[in-house]
């Protein structure tokens, strides 16, 4: 049996996509599904990592990174100074693709390590260590939203985060609405997708505009001076920050329209959608009880999120799947 067990939730982001690595604003919430990690000392110089979902065991020498799912765990171990072999059992209810399954795994692992070794890590520092794992061990130059949401968010409210200052506050859901998340059935791998390329592009756009980050641009028309595709990438980030701030005062119908605009921007300017995802989003947007819908997460496949009339999520999901076919499945009614 493990010496300690810890868990952390996945997240779904309603507004503020691809802004967190440019100092922007994000508005995620936690989902009920969680990743769970049990760990304990095994008295050897080898970590034994078991994934219940994959029914697979990996053995990695202490100080090594390993392959497959190992880097998400061994990165946490190395950054936490673990020098002895551990048995680690992981299981997760968080679907992969847009719902921060990797962040949930990292945060759960770091929570377990904090308990086992008495690490002095508050919830923000723990999240930032998870981001460091992604950068240094997984190879994804992600922003801070996913790990912060997994570490700090709950399922009852939205979490507004200023990703530059890390200031945050709880924001109520629009009245009369609830969230529906659906799996498009389109798999994606961030490190093998255009995610890192997009980050490089917006960093170059900020440099050409003479600002620290695109967060600092107050006049969106200045992006017209940039060459393509930097112009389109920057336009998405700047307009998306504005949508988050507008969403704070929006009712359900207005909030839904902002989500629709975000999807169009992610599809056309940031080019991180997928034809099947676009089909699923269009089917959702056509439902009378749907206020708005969009791709969520880094993109290139994965999940979509819809804001729907309260009490209708299950019915909307069932109706949309009848048209979408057997590729997708409802994952968070």
How would you concisely characterize the structure shown here?
The protein has 333 residues and is of the alpha+beta class.
Word description of this protein:
Keywords: ATP-binding, Carbohydrate metabolism, Galactose metabolism, Kinase, Nucleotide-binding, Transferase. Residues 3-38 form the Galactokinase N-terminal domain. The protein is α+β, with helices and mostly antiparallel strands and 333 residues long. It folds into two domains: 4-170, Ribosomal Protein S5, domain 2 (2-Layer Sandwich); 174-332, 2-Layer Sandwich (Alpha-Beta Plaits), CATH 3.30.70.890. Helix content is 37%, strand content 24%. It is built from nine helices and eleven strands. The chain has helices at 70-79, 101-117, 123-138, 145-152, 195-209, 230-247, 252-268, 275-285, 313-324, and strands at 4-15, 25-41, 46-51, 56-61, 86-92, 158-162, 168-171, 177-183, 290-295, 303-309, 329-332. Strands 1, 2, 3, 4, 5, 6 and 7 form a seven-stranded mixed sheet that branches. Strands 9-10-8-11 form a four-stranded antiparallel sheet. Helix 1 packs across helix 3 (123-138), helix 2 packs across helix 4 (145-152) and helix 3 (123-138) runs antiparallel to helix 4. The longest helix has 18 residues, at 230-247. It is globular, with a radius of gyration of 20 Å. The model is unreliable at 327-333 (pLDDT under 50).
SSE arrangement:
Blueprint: E1 4-15, E2 25-41, E3 46-51, E4 56-61, H1 70-79, E5 86-92, H2 101-117, H3 123-138, H4 145-152, E6 158-162, E7 168-171, E8 177-183, H5 195-209, H6 230-247, H7 252-268, H8 275-285, E9 290-295, E10 303-309, H9 313-324, E11 329-332
Parallel strand pairs: 3-5
Antiparallel strand pairs: 1-2, 2-5, 2-6, 3-4, 6-7, 8-10, 8-11, 9-10
Helix pairs in contact: 1-2, 1-3, 2-3, 2-4, 3-4, 5-6, 6-7, 8-9
